[in-house]
Automatic annotation (TrEMBL):
Species: Sporomusa ovata
Keyword tRNA processing part of the UniProt annotation: no
GO biological process: aspartate metabolic process; tricarboxylic acid cycle
The protein's name in its UniProt record: aspartate ammonia-lyase
Keyword Lyase belongs to the record: yes
Entry's EC annotation: 4.3.1.1
Amino acid sequence: MRIEKDLLGEREVPLEVYYGIHTLRAVENFPLSGYRVSAVLIKAIALIKKAAAEVNAELGYLPKELAQAIMVAADEIMDGKWQDQFVVDALQGGAGTSTNMNVNEVLANRAIELLSGQRGEYSLVHPLNHVNMHQSTNDVYPTALRIAAIWLLKPLSNGCAVLQESLQEKEAQFAGIIKVGRTEMQDAVPIMLGQEFSAYAGAIARDRWRLYKVEERLRQAALGGTAIGTGLNADKKYIFMVNDRVRQYAGIGLARAENMIDVIQNADVFVEVSGLLKALAVNLGKMSHDLRLMSSGPRAGIGEIQLPERQAGSSIMPGKVNPIIPEAINQVAFHVMASDMAIAMAAQSGQLELNAFMPLIAHHLLESLAVLTNAVKILNDFCIQGIMADNERCTALLNHSQVSVTALVPHIGYDLASKVARNAMEKNITIREAALQLSVLPEEQIDAALNPRAMTRPGIAGMPK
């Protein structure tokens, strides 16, 4: 053990760990969820610490050798090393201070090692005096969250592009398959199966565009704002230089916020991003519900499409295969929508110059980005690409339905068309047969009006041109 001190006294810290007394107390104080802080957020914080150390050395505030040790340690963290040293629960009091201190301490102790010292020898590299120089949790944490969110937005947007392309391919593949269109779970009018997939593709295209555009909202950095955005204890040159350096290292178009007080205390940008993630979740969920319905059966349900078989579906019913991929996507959608509510509540609960609930916002936002990225990929790879249509089933259901009666309304009026529908229902015959029995129109005109493919295009089926 080694002995470390803080404001509250002394504590024994295991020799082998890189974190210190602040992290130890946080672990004891917040045994809440069991979730670790996002590795992407840790990477973003380490990137900021690297940039800060480099700029502080250039300005003469840190010895170059010391700054170089911090930078090397930060690079190691950004490369994925020492992940087992970030032990604070994702849900924590203190607006993210425990996470910031966890990173500060790991960086300090690793830098001490690189300078041939012993862990805990903070006279060489101090977590606060050196690693956290010219910084506060309150400007580092929200800026790191913005960076992490942008990093995660890119693969999600790319995944949506791939999914959109697959849906468009299915649109083309199923363009010639006509089926029953349904509203409120009841037979409505004919539609092409390809047209249904075109609607899914359109929805995902909107999501892709929203995600692409919302990145702009995240590009404001508050580094140098320190505690509440006024820049207290930060050199003016540092403020300009560190934001530029972080932009270079992060590889994204960050810019120093014109009003750092605003950016530090208000979390509405994360609510905006989360809202767009919720919109994507809604579209994925709706599509998954539809896929489950259209593939229901296989013999006693709708059965218009067949989903790829991924695994056996029951421990008691032999031969059963369930729509597990759409079911999983539905659950992701529920989760993201619930997370959106948590983010909104946390954002509006900030008081005055700081939002103390940033850890909750960070946890849910980054988790939503990650699970949606995975969900989009498995929906595309394990479901959409392998969907097959049952043309015979689509045709049989269409022929046995009454959906074509709507096409008669412009020719014979609603009331008489209703009689045709009732006649077909009572006698269990087709709409064509019922219309002929009631002699509502000449046979040739009935056939023209009841052409199902004409019903899937704008205009009045059977109307002379």
